[in-house]
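Supplementary notes for students who missed Thursday's class. We covered one full example, reproduced here. Read the sequence, then the structure, then the short commentary at the end.
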Amino acid sequence: MYYNIAMKKLFITICLSLTLSAAQWCPVTGLKISEYLETSYQAKLKSNDSLRVYASLYALLKDRENYGLKDIKKYDTKTKTYVSVNIPKSMHIGKNPMSEVYRKRYYAMGKKLYKKRCPQDIDLEDYLEISDLKQELQEICNLDSEMYLHATAVYLWDVKRVGGIVFNEKKVHVTEHEKCPVCGMYVYKYPRWAAQIFYKDKHYSFDGVKDLMKWYFEHKDDIQEIKVSDYYSQHAIDGTKAYYVIGSDTYGPMGHELIPFIELDDAKNFKEDHKGKKILRFNEIEPTLSLFLD
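Structure (token representation):
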């Protein structure tokens, strides 16, 4: 898995050495640069001096982590030009500032627009970055505003193309050596389903919420934290605050699963799209449910 990710990043870096990314949209977030000019940055890739323009500090930090950047400049509102700035190496990527807006509004909107106004045979593997995808969507879809175009692009990039490097942040992190204590499977092979229970001085990783709950009901004492993977964003979320869809036609590594979401609307949409039977909160999950799902 880690080898494949490294090779993918190398491939993208090589491709970027052959062509400049379209400057109309941020290559990391897909936001239109002209609409975010006051928060925008410029930088060059260390590998080839290709100039990149970013809509935000978040996007710049993301690219710096993935590829390496130099000659960083920030847009200055007084001079209306980009001026050199020093971004400390200790500054790391935080949460995407648009993530809540996307979850609450854009993903649902983009899904509807994609189904009604775009060809359904779009192969997301054909696009290196979200800016490339937006360029194509502008040409092949009937999207008559930047908001519609962006909503469709982020839905396809973040939801349909789960696991890409652009929004691959704050996931449940497991090592290659961690096995699920319930089924014995290596959890790193199933990152979409990864879940964890943390105690004061140790933690356990699971290849799905179903196995996590089996463990939970037998080992409740002294639990500090429970993490599960939001099915759409793949972010690590608080398992005790998630919404879980059961009885759907989507299967995990161990068959039927409890599918977690941080947002109720996402859970409702998934339940409708995948023939789910019910949505549960964490405290509504009964010990006998895991037996029903087996």
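Commentary. Confidence is low (pLDDT under 50) at residues 1-5, 12-22, 163-169. DSSP finds eight helices and 13 strands in the chain. If anything here is unclear, bring it to office hours.
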